[in-house]
Amino acid sequence: MSLKRSPLAPEVFPTMQPVAGCNLAAGASAVRYTGRDDLALLAFAEGTTVGGVFTRSRVPGHPVTWCRRIIKGGQARGLVVNSGNANVLNGQHGDAAVRMEVTAAARLLEVPQDQIFVASTGVIGEPLPAERIAKTLPDLYAYLAPDGWQAAAEAILTTDTFAKGSFTTTTIGGSEVKIAGIAKGSGMIQPDMATMLAFIVTDAALPAPILQSLVEAANEEAFRKITVDSDTSTSDMLLVFATGQAVHPAPMDADSGLLSAFRHALLDVARDLAQQIVRDGEGISKFIQISVEGAVSDESARIIALSVANSPLVKTAIAGEDANWGRIAAAIGKADQQIDVSRLGIGIGNWIVAQNGARVPNLDETPINEHLKGREIDIVISVGPGPGSATVWTSDLTHEYININADYRS
Amino acid sequence: MSLKRSPLAPEVFPTMQPVAGCNLAAGASAVRYTGRDDLALLAFAEGTTVGGVFTRSRVPGHPVTWCRRIIKGGQARGLVVNSGNANVLNGQHGDAAVRMEVTAAARLLEVPQDQIFVASTGVIGEPLPAERIAKTLPDLYAYLAPDGWQAAAEAILTTDTFAKGSFTTTTIGGSEVKIAGIAKGSGMIQPDMATMLAFIVTDAALPAPILQSLVEAANEEAFRKITVDSDTSTSDMLLVFATGQAVHPAPMDADSGLLSAFRHALLDVARDLAQQIVRDGEGISKFIQISVEGAVSDESARIIALSVANSPLVKTAIAGEDANWGRIAAAIGKADQQIDVSRLGIGIGNWIVAQNGARVPNLDETPINEHLKGREIDIVISVGPGPGSATVWTSDLTHEYININADYRS
Questions:
Q1: Non-local CB neighbours of A252 within 8 Å, separated by 6+ positions
Q2: Catalytic annotation, pick one of A48, A168, A195, A243
Q3: By CB distance 3.0 to 4.6 Å, which of A48, B136, B238, B271 could disulfide with B29?
């Protein structure tokens, strides 16, 4: 089944330059889908370092378990990503399937097996036909090239309605470095699972420990600030590879002033990919930004903002273009964070609807309802005098979400 | 707007006997609704004790704040409940409105103001026209009678599709005591809020401290085990009144053997009301029971069960009558509780779909899909060898939920 492109999708796939030390290829292995690419191979130059973060699910996929183990080595030479089957809850067969993919890729690339990363997305609990992947990898190997970003971005999609890519250049100590990323998002058509996969490649030269802390910092401000329906996947994964092909002064640590521009650029790419994932949230009709200020801490502000972002009552109200601030207030209250109700303030668009814990007198909802008719909804919340703030992004909850997730078989 | 009666509603309102020491009346004060009762008054005999639990929301309604304060006294002579306006986030006006209700009721009943409990449910952030309530209370006072349970149950409804009542008799030390309860549930039509109100009255003679611990225990096993859409209300409230009119031996404490039958009977009434609330969940087409066993503790099992119960992916899959056990597994994983994936088992109806962390070989989904076509869905989950278990109840997520919560204005 094919879905119509999200109304919040970008016009076109961005122009992405090659990143020295990274070659890509995509192809069709027919793991589950037919008539489309479902397999991507990325090959990295010797000396490529890697950092990553993985799903917090207590039921992680077999590829996640493998990647968690080998990432300790900090070195990466290859990445294999398939769509259509997530290889989750498959017992020993699941581990054997990962091993088969790793063995095939390592042999082709002539690199150690523990430097081959694997990611899978798609149906859960069905054995992954890894032999199809192993059989297809040689074709991809033959076509490895530096300019395969869009093809790779398309191959890893499940039920996403558009391919997600982001590219930027920045400098380290005056030398230009590139950052390129692709991602797939929260397509959750039965029986697929919501899975967020993001892979970023830079030609910067960064020791693994430094890269790891940069990745964790970017993740905090990007992927941990988005939600579509609060459902964490078994397979969520963010991997960042640094090929070391760029020539620049070596930073001593992640906080080095040398990396200030790079840190911002990496966050820009991560946030761009994260927001594209929300913009492809199932059945989305509105892109919602929720900012919370005055909380006791940034993390407390994030919890409050996500409580609002995940409230079905808030999401349906916005889908209904209804300035129902009472539901926002209730969602703030249920977050169980320390707030000062007497200072509670809520704004929608540029209009304050509640202030000092009560509705603004003689509130005119007309301009607010106008704002809610748009595609981009802005909610600002003040919960007290504290220093904590956070901004999160989410989608609304529509009939199309139900159609996609419940009615597919009917 | 009126909604069609929930397909999971009981056939009829139960037969409820009078409870000595409790008189009731209902009437119309036109707080918001017209052409229907929206106000209930309960008057209790001198010496009536009270126990209660309230919403954990950090944005509690003004009535909740009042009740929390006076319940410390443990004595109750009256209860005033209105529907149509929740009296939440109304600043000083909100407190003044509560005071106006309390003053009017205390004067009529000739009792202390700090023994008058107040509950409100309905729209948030709109000043409560308490003068209409004060003006109507004398009419209700004139009609106070022991047999007004159904009228009271109907007056407190907001967007519920049926009145909720439960009645039973039990014994304390050989003497019969009665337990009667009414509740209103999770109607959440814009701009109303989801609010759970439950009021239970018994003629047992129980000191307030004993009653309070009995109430907390019943709440743990009843109202804390249900969810419709995870949205906690600003006004949720459970109050239990004991009029002391029954003659029976005095228990020394809540754990007294004298109370073993009473504890079970109180839990039966509380659970009956809680399940009726779920059966009236907005847009419900299936009543879902989720049992978790093998967790490290009962509370851990409850968290896992609620994670599954609140997963939009699980709720939509069940609405779609789809045996999508992968979504159940993912929801178990995101609960972030200690589990043993190698022992993970999932059953739907009487059929095991996953065992020892993997799908059952050659799983035949036919009988499972048959079970899912029914109104009552049963999910059993085993997460390890631990002693913890819990059972929760929820509804599915349907188009009708979106209709009710988003499309009302259109």
A1: none
A2: A195
A3: B136
d(CA B162, CA B276): 9
Choose, out of B56, B58, B397, the residue to mutate when testing the contact with A (most A CBs < 10 Å). B58
Give average pLDDT by consecutive 10-residue segment, chain B, 410 residues: 79 97 98 95 98 91 97 98 94 96 98 98 92 98 97 94 97 97 70 72 98 96 80 86 97 96 97 92 90 97 93 88 88 92 94 93 90 96 97 88 60
Q: Which residues between 44 and 103 in chain B have a beta carbon less than 8 angstroms from any beta carbon of chain A?
A: 55-60, 88-91, 93-94
| pTM tops 0.90, yes or no | no
- Indicate the DSSP class of residue A192: B
Q: ipTM of the predicted structure?
A: 0.78
B233 vs B258: CA distance, rounded Å = 36
CATH number of A22-279, picked from 1.10.3210.10, 3.60.70.12, 3.40.50.700, 4.10.320.10: 3.60.70.12
Within a 10 A sphere around the Cβ of B147, how many other Cβ atoms?
A: 12
List the single residue in A90, A230, A357 with the smallest CB-CB distance to B91.
A357
Quick check: A193 contacting B, CB < 8 Å? Answer: yes
DSSP string for A115-167: GEEEEEEEESSS---HHHHHHHHHHHHHT-BTT-HHHHHHHT-SS-SS-EEEE
- Burial class of residue A338 (count of CB atoms within 10 Å of its CB; 0-12, 13-18, 19+): middle
In the annotation, is A195 catalytic?
yes
**For A287-406, which CATH class?**
alpha beta
